């Protein structure tokens, strides 16, 4: 499972417990589960902690303190990422621009394209710029523009992801069974032992190489379901530069969609 690194405040909206990490009070969501160890995650809302039903609260507190450096780093990184993302908010109108597979995509409202399948047509302006004509009047609302662009991106995502899954699965000696698209703020992808793959359609905002890394990452889980050294060796056998691509995924900011 491949996580994103979304923004996170220091107070989770569903916080049920608090802990002081250094000089900072962090309010976090706490849940019991059937897991065998205490786990932490930094999601879009903040810090979440999952613990076995048998774990004492003092053990949870001790685990939080032992991981305090990592937790605070992730929370502050997420806040900084949120600040960067806020400066890249898309204005959904004629001329809106967004990153698309390593290029810049410009949205052009053009009701003359009403007969085109899906009401959208992609053309190339130059090697680095693409133009997406969508069949909407110039008076269309931001929500209408956003929905039409998103519908087109979902189509493109499914086609691209299926093609890349089919390309890499034989190289890894695995078979995938079903593809689902997601927009989950905390995950770029996930894989199930039954061959189901879930990929975040917002990956289209990154370069094709990053998309391929995520596809290989999830397919590799069909061979190794954890993140052990054996798993990363499996990834590296197909994507040798996965470390650099993984870093891109962590540091580059994709437009927010709400």
| Order of neighbouring strands in the sheet with most strands | 1-11-12-10
Stated plainly, the CATH topology of the largest domain is called Zincin-like
- Top CATH class of the largest domain: Alpha Beta
- DSSP E strands, number: 12
- Multimeric organization: single chain
The termini sit apart by 22 Å
Structural class by SSE content: alpha/beta
Low-confidence region ranges: none
Morphology? globular
How are helices and strands ordered from N to C? EEEEEHHEEEEHEEEHHH
Main beta sheet:
4 strands, mixed
Please identify, by name, the CATH architecture of the largest domain.
2-Layer Sandwich
Summarize model confidence as the mean pLDDT: 86
Helix content: 25-40%
Tell me the number of helical segments per DSSP (H or I, 4 or more residues long). Answer: 6
CATH homologous superfamily annotation of the largest domain: Metalloproteases ("zincins"), catalytic domain
Q: Radius of gyration over alpha carbons?
A: 21 Å
In percent terms, what proportion of residues is strand? 25-35%
How many structural domains does the protein architecture include?
2
């Amino acid at each position: 499972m491949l996580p994103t690194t979304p923004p996170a405040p220091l107070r989770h909206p569903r916080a049920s417990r608090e802990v002081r990490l250094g000089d900072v009070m962090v309010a976090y969501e706490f849940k019991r589960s059937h897991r065998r160890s205490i786990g932490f995650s930094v999601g879009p809302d903040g810090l979440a902690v999952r613990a076995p039903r048998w774990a004492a609260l003092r053990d949870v507190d001790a685990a939080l303190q032992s991981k305090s450096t990592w937790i605070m780093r992730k929370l502050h990184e997420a806040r900084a990422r949120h600040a960067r993302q806020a400066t890249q908010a898309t204005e959904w109108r004629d001329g809106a621009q967004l990153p698309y597979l390593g290029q810049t995509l410009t949205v052009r409202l053009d009701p003359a394209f009403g007969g085109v399948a899906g009401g959208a047509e992609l053309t190339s302006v130059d090697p680095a710029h693409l133009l997406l004509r969508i069949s909407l009047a110039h008076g269309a609302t931001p929500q209408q523009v956003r929905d039409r662009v998103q519908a087109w991106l979902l189509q493109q995502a499914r086609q691209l992801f299926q093609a890349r899954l089919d390309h890499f699965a034989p190289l890894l000696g695995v078979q995938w069974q079903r593809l689902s698209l997601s927009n989950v703020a905390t995950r770029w992808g996930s894989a199930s032992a039954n061959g189901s793959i879930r990929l975040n359609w917002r990956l289209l905002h990154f370069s094709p190489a990053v998309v391929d890394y995520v596809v290989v990452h999830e397919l590799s889980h069909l061979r190794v379901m954890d993140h052990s050294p054996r798993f990363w060796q499996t990834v590296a056998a197909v994507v040798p530069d996965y470390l650099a691509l993984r870093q891109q995924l962590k540091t580059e900011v994709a437009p927010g969609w709400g």
